[in-house]
């Protein structure tokens, strides 16, 4: 009996030991799996750390580049502002120094219509012509300071070169000897008012001269009977008389077309930010990706000026295209309705594949860079 009991106990102990061994094996397998997972997690964590470090470095470089671009943009904007201030100063100085001679012949009905289309009424035309014909001396005489002109004519002329004409004039007046100064006493209110208005007069006069120049160009185009395609509006083609048809052996061009083909064409283009130098000699394929294969140009400076500073440089190139350009590229010109209502504004859309041929028509000796900002443009001085 004791032997059987001992055998049973031994059998039970063996079974328990086997169960414990099985459990230990399972736990060991679980531990190995956990260790493998831990090793994998550690590897993934290391990769994530490397990626995070790389992203951080890229972000740091991007931030540095952004700072650089912002600094360049600020510097470019400041150069534009300095250039604008200098042009405005010269315009005011010119307004003070010289009156602008103007054609006094009456305008024809056709000329008046052309001015109206450009937003210049007859009343405005007459006013800007009147303002342009006045210099500083005329202004002072007209505004009650004749005595000042009589006594200080040469001093007034000298003050024109001073950036602050009113201050210069008062310095001259206050330094007069009593014998001359006494003659001004009764006219001090008129003189004071006239001198106070000099700045406003010069600004209005400079603006009027700029406006008058545009008006006279419009009138001159009418008088010279410049074809529509060169005068700011797209010529309406008859069926079968488009530029492509006209260039074929079997087609003939309209009379106006032949005039257009035989003269130069002037176009304006504002390059993307930082691309001014790369387009000095024309359209640059390197500036156009596969998703952006077209270059856009305008027939008017107002068209190019709208892009200045808006993803584009603060200025635009003025390209002069040689005779024959329109015969080849005429179909690339499109009417361009615009919110600013610039009359006759058109857009030239040149495909990247045609850049070399386009550039071959540019008279590079006459290419100019015009500064511009917020829709305003400033041709080179002189």
The figure for the number of domains is 3
Rounded to the nearest angstrom, the radius of gyration is 39 Å
Distance, first to last CA: 132 Å
Computed structural class: alpha+beta
Shape: elongated
Poorly predicted sequence stretches spanning 5 or more consecutive residues: 231-253
Oligomer: single chain
* Proportion in helices: 55-70%
Structural description of this entry:
The strands form two sheets. The protein has a four-stranded antiparallel sheet. It has a three-stranded antiparallel sheet with strand order 2-5-4. The protein folds into three domains: 1-85; 109-224, no CATH class; 239-378. The protein has helices at residues 2-97, 109-117, 122-132, 136-142, 146-159, 165-174, 178-181, 188-196, 198-224, 243-246, 255-261, 301-305, 325-329, 355-360, and strands spanning 265-269, 294-298, 315-321, 333-335, 346-351, 368-373, 376-378. It is built from 14 helices and seven strands. A hairpin with a 2-residue loop joins β6 (368-373) and β7. The N and C termini lie far apart (132 Å). With 382 residues, it is an alpha+beta fold. The radius of gyration is 39 Å and the shape is elongated. Mean pLDDT is 77; it is low at 231-253.
């Amino acid at each position: 009996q004791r032997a059987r009991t001992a055998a049973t106990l031994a059998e039970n102990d063996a079974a328990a030991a086997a169960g414990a061994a099985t459990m230990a094996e399972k736990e060991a397998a679980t531990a190995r799996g956990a260790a493998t997972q831990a090793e994998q997690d550690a590897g993934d964590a290391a990769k994530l750390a490397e990626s995070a470090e790389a992203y951080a470095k890229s972000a740091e470089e991007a931030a540095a580049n952004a700072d650089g671009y912002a600094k360049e943009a600020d510097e470019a904007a400041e150069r534009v502002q300095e250039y604008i201030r200098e042009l405005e100063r010269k315009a005011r100085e010119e307004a003070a120094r010289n009156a602008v001679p103007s054609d006094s012949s009456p305008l024809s009905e056709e000329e008046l219509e052309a001015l109206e289309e450009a937003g210049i009424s007859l009343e405005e035309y007459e006013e800007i012509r009147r303002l342009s014909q006045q210099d500083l001396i005329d202004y002072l005489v007209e505004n009650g300071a004749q005595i000042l002109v009589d006594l200080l004519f040469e001093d007034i002329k000298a003050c024109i070169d001073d950036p602050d004409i009113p201050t210069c004039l008062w310095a001259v007046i206050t330094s007069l000897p009593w014998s001359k100064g006494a003659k001004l006493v009764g006219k001090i209110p008129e003189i004071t008012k006239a001198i106070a208005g000099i700045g406003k007069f010069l600004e209005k006069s400079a603006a009027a001269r700029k406006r008058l120049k545009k008006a006279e160009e419009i009138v001159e185009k009418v008088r010279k009977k410049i074809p529509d395609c060169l005068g700011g509006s797209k010529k309406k083609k008859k069926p079968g008389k488009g530029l492509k048809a006209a260039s074929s052996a079997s087609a003939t061009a309209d009379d106006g077309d032949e005039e257009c083909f035989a003269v130069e064409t002037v176009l304006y283009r504002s390059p993307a930010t930082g691309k001014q130098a790369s387009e000095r000699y024309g359209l640059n394929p390197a500036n156009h990706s596969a998703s952006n294969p077209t270059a856009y140009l305008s027939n008017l400076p107002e068209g190019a000026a709208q892009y200045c500073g808006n993803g584009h440089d603060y200025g635009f190139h003025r390209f002069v295209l040689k005779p024959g350009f329109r015969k080849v590229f005429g179909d690339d010109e499109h009417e361009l309705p615009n919110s600013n209502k610039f009359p006759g504004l058109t857009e030239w859309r040149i495909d990247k594949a045609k850049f070399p041929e386009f550039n071959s028509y540019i008279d590079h000796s006459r290419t100019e860079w015009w500064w511009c900002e917020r829709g305003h443009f400033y041709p080179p001085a002189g």
